[in-house]
């Protein structure tokens, strides 16, 4: 099973999964990493850690449709079986979704279906959870479909929202669980394959 990655900024989950593959905690091969951000930390990290990396965006490929075609081509050329989104801040295009139906995973910083959809990412999610007075939040690994955060849930991790939690403290708690949750979900998927 070859896993490739899409990331826009730090790619912390991608880094954790790549480390797990390299230390034999995850029985898979590393494919490629695609970023839409030439200034991303993950691009530099890949160059320093011998990971094949591609910068593909609407700017580099003259439009979203061309970028989408380029992404699915790079993924196929790398013989990718599974795609992991790690803080990828763009919608996955129809060409890529068509080639990889139910083979693209994302992690969302809340318990979907709550606090998902357009505009619900990062601190927007955590603030909405706090504003609603929720007693729990967490993270969700789900399949990517053409609706934002609407794909089937694979696995969730519940985190207690405590009295006195702030945006920073809730973000930290959720971010701490995300790499472990992603790794666990991938291990389950690989067992099923």
CATH superfamily of the largest domain: Formyl transferase, N-terminal domain
SS content category: alpha/beta
Count up the domains: 2
Calculate the mean pLDDT score and round it.
97
- Helical content class: 25-40%
Gyration radius, to the nearest Å?
16 Å
In terms of DSSP E residues, the strand content is: 15-25%
Q: Largest sheet at a glance?
A: 7 strands, mixed
Total number of helical segments?
A: 6
Runs in which pLDDT lies below 50 for 5 or more consecutive residues are none
CATH class of the largest domain: Alpha Beta
Looking at the structure, the CATH topology of the largest domain is Rossmann fold
- The appropriate CATH architecture of the largest domain is 3-Layer(aba) Sandwich
Number of strands: 7
Strand order in the sheet with the most strands: 3-2-1-4-5-6-7
- N- and C-termini, Cα separation: 9 Å
> H/E element string?
EHEHEHEHEHEEH
Q: What is the 3D form?
A: globular
Instruction: Kindly report the oligomeric state of this protein.
Output: single chain
Overview of the structural elements:
The chain has helices at 12-22, 41-48, 64-77, 94-99, 122-131, 167-192; strands spanning 2-7, 29-35, 53-55, 82-86, 104-108, 136-143, 153-160. It has 193 residues and is α/β, with parallel strands linked by helices. The protein has two domains: 1-101, Rossmann fold, CATH 3.40.50; 105-193, Formyl transferase, N-terminal domain (Rossmann fold). A seven-stranded mixed beta sheet has the order 3-2-1-4-5-6-7, sandwiched between helices. Helix 1 (12-22) crosses helix 6. The longest helix has 26 residues, at 167-192. It is globular, with a radius of gyration of 16 Å. The model has no long low-confidence stretch (mean pLDDT 97).
